[in-house]
Specification:
The chain has 153 residues and is mainly α. The protein has helices at residues 12-24, 29-41, 51-57, 62-75, 77-81, 97-108, 120-129, 138-147. The longest helix is centred in the middle third of the chain and has 14 residues, at 62-75. Pfam families: HTH_32.
């Protein structure tokens, strides 16, 4: 368990905001959990609980409880309840609109000599050969075609 311990004393306005958040139940589950942790940690409340009791009551870890308490003391209520979203996706998509258009155009064109129709493997090899992408799997080609309701039959 973390060694730094903070004493939480909620203001009347913070307590009201947290109670509203919990009782309405329309917020994401993580926000409701954080609100419950803060309400249970409040020294001014008659239902004050320890970190271990809070963790057991809300089926979480003592580290999570301590993190919520630390964030509240250091950054305030708004930063404790905010949902942080990623600014960029972890891996940029290989198939952009431009690449997708090239795949569809290839699929609609005549197949190479010696083949009666395009296959996803042929399409992926041709996309790499023409320089649309550095590498692309046949499954990605298949998903792209399925998304646009095209089939190779």
């Amino acid at each position: 368990m973390p060694s730094v311990k903070y004493i939480i004393e909620l203001t009347e306005s913070d307590r009201k905001a947290l109670t509203d958040l919990v009782t309405k139940g329309i917020a994401p589950a993580k926000l409701i959990l954080r609100a419950n942790i803060l309400l249970a940690s409040d020294r001014n409340s008659t239902k004050h609980m320890t970190v271990a009791e809070i963790a057991e009551t809300f089926h979480t870890t003592p580290t999570t409880v301590q993190t919520v308490k630390t964030t509240y003391v250091e950054k305030g209520l708004e930063q404790t309840l905010v949902r942080r979203k990623r600014k960029i996706p972890p891996v940029p998509a290989k198939v952009t609109g431009d690449v997708e258009a090239h795949i569809i155009a290839l699929c609609c064109s005549n197949p190479p000599k010696g083949y009666s129709r395009w296959t996803v493997r042929l399409l992926s090899e041709k996309c790499i050969e023409l320089g649309y992408v550095k590498s692309i799997s046949p499954m990605t080609i298949s998903r792209t075609l399925k998304k646009t309701n095209l089939s190779l039959t």
